Automatic annotation (TrEMBL):
TM region positions: none
Protein's UniProt keywords contain Membrane: no
UniProt xrefs under InterPro entries: RNA_pol_sigma-70-like (IPR039425), RNA_pol_sigma-70_dom (IPR014284), RNA_pol_sigma70_r2 (IPR007627), RNA_pol_sigma70_r4_t2 (IPR013249), RNA_pol_sigma_r2 (IPR013325), RNA_pol_sigma_r3/r4-like (IPR013324), WH-like_DNA-bd_sf (IPR036388)
Enzyme class: transferase
Top-rank taxon, per record: Bacteria
Name assigned to this protein: RNA polymerase sigma-70 factor
Gene Ontology MF terms in the entry: DNA binding; DNA-directed RNA polymerase activity; sigma factor activity
Domain RNA polymerase sigma factor 70 region 4 type span(s) in chain numbering: 129-177
Enzyme Commission no: 2.7.7.6
UniProt organism field: Polaribacter irgensii 23-P
Similarity annotation: Belongs to the sigma-70 factor family. ECF subfamily.
Lineage: Bacteria, Pseudomonadati, Bacteroidota, Flavobacteriia, Flavobacteriales
BP term (GO), one: DNA-templated transcription initiation
Domain (RNA polymerase sigma-70 region) ranges: 14-77
Length: 188
């Protein structure tokens, strides 16, 4: 008895998977136009590599794996261009409302203090400098895990490292960032 091999039906992809892939993408890039572009690129890549589909996964799973790669490539492109770093800032220290904002989405300060804005700009600039000083692999792991919030398994698969290696790299990156910030920001 032979197992039935799943086949692709690209004529139905938009009707069957566009909404799902868009929702998946928007939750990771938080930009509607970019999410639409990534889904379109996913469909195009799927058509180009249809001959590689082995039927071991469903069509949707296969398309999601292509989309994941597109999202990773997008962030790699941003990181390789030394894009603007995202810094997490606390908005509640404790309690059930504990959480953080990405710096670029922090609500404007009510007192519009020029000094605070200047200090945040300088802090962000120093953090970017410190991140640039990290070894390339450390910086990539730190950004993927801490800033982009990729899952550990995804990062390990992408970078071909073990989970324990990832945590060692992440720890070392944090130690180096802390030292750099202490030497160049907090002690100045």
């Amino acid at each position: 008895m032979s197992a039935k091999k799943n086949t692709l039906d690209s004529n139905k992809w938009i009707d069957k998977y566009a909404d799902y892939l868009y929702n998946y993408s928007i939750s990771r890039v938080n930009n509607s136009d970019l999410a639409k572009d990534l889904v379109q690129e996913t469909f195009f890549a799927g058509l180009k590599s249809a001959s590689n589909f082995e039927g071991r996964a469903t069509e949707r799973t296969w398309l999601v794996s292509i989309l994941k790669r597109k999202i990773i490539d997008h962030y790699r492109k941003i990181n390789s261009a030394k894009g603007q770093a995202e810094v997490r800032m606390n908005f509640y220290e404790n309690g059930e409302n504990e959480g953080s904002w990405l710096e670029e989405r922090v609500p404007q300060s009510w007192d519009n203090s020029v000094e605070k804005k200047l200090e945040n700009t300088e802090l962000k600039s120093q953090l970017e400098i410190c991140m640039d000083r990290l070894p390339e692999k450390y910086a990539m792991v730190f950004k993927m895990k801490t800033i982009q919030e990729f899952e550990t398994a995804e990062i390990c698969k992408e970078l071909d490292i073990t989970a324990s290696n990832l945590w060692v790299i992440l720890h070392r990156a944090r130690v180096q960032l802390r030292k750099c910030m202490e030497d160049n920001w907090f002690n100045n």
